[in-house]
Specification:
491 residues; alpha/beta; seven-stranded parallel sheet; 18 helices
Length: 491
Amino acid sequence: MESGSILDFIDNKTILVTGATGFLAKIFVEKILRVQPNVKKLYLLVRATDAKSAMQRFNTEAVAKDLFKTLKEKYGTNLQSFLSEKVTPIAGDITYENLGIKDSNLIQEMWKSVDVVVNVAATTNFDERYDIALALNTFGARNVYNFAAKCVKIKLLLHVSTAYVSGETPGLILESPYRLGDALNGVDGLDINVEKKIIEEKLKELSADETSTDKSITLAMKDLGIERANKFGWPNTYVFTKALGEMILGHLKGDMPLVILRPTIILSTYKEPFPGWIEGIRTIDSLAVGYGKGRLACFLGDPESTIDVIPADMVANAMIATMAAHANQPGETIYHVGSSVSNPLKYKGIQKSGYNYFSKNPWINKDGTPVIVSEVKVLSSMDSFRRYFNLRYLLPLQGLQVVNSALCHAFSGTYSDLKRKINFVLRVVELYKPYLFSKSFYDDMNTEKLRQVVKENEVEANIFYFDPKTIDWEDYFLHTHLPGAVKHVFK
């Protein structure tokens, strides 16, 4: 690990970023453009049909967002000129060879000029179709590696994974790699190519069934993903396919300098480009704002369990720091970027912050009336959740079923609607259970060493901050994260 200047490293470099319109990738791109305008080129891979639509997506989903307001203030009317010089959005898709880039001249140009490849493209849906998740999170990682390996100036491949590739393993999770074929539960037979064949056979079987619909095929592929993940010890399709992606990269890496960065639950920005920017619904935000809107009768989760969260700008800063630290250094390094070891946050802290915030800043309904929140009922185990759910929902559903039968199915629509909603809630609870009752702590020794290296340069330590020990969680949730979530996500 080197201790050279991060800003000097980025200077005059060409960087390829996949998944470039995603939440984290945009923060990463904005930060580089803001702090190092002398970066040579950012190639941004965007899922689009052509270069024009790729540019349109970048402008609409990135530049037009509040996230870029600091850059807009800095450059004013010259912003588009600056971006056109530094940024090249590219239509592509990591599920294809050569990342789905159709322009052969552009491919050759990139192979000659790219210094760093940053792979952020992924589907983060816990309940994704297995065929989609495997194509993106697993074989997509392989396609990105193959492209990076053809870049003659390549200095580093940075792959963004997730800390939750460890599944529900309790205790201290080390920053160590997963090897090809190693199942979390020790079950033999984990083979990525076999998984691909199972998907192909299942799709063939579903297509041959005349009763299949798009909806039933999607549900069957989702169920298959959960089934295969559970077979080998992972709780959901997302973390299973991300773990397989890590395995492929570790297997292929050769002399390629490889960093695998594993963030925990990513929240709104802590400081930059301004506090509280967030996009999309994070796990705990849907719970918190549902509570603020008066739609949540209870919280599910162990109040004493540690929930590992980290602000998005700290993740982006860690990404940039790893690029400078590991450039041209063959080998694989894993980084956990989280807080459960350095500055643990208990689940009850989030519950308390939600109550305090929405008591002082009540949600205003469409009719202008404020929602008065009360301290929420906490179901601290799955057993207590099942008892509560049975009494409040399943027994009334059974009663409605009896009445519906007695009245010649007069309430069939109501019964079906309620049953569908109940099944949806049960499925969601099952998916999120590992994170609400987590017993895992993510060792960040490598990340701490990197922090110490960055701190050797006092100026850059303030620019590329990623130390969770500096965060006062109660203050962050009350004055930064929850106001940000309300403003930017739940307007």
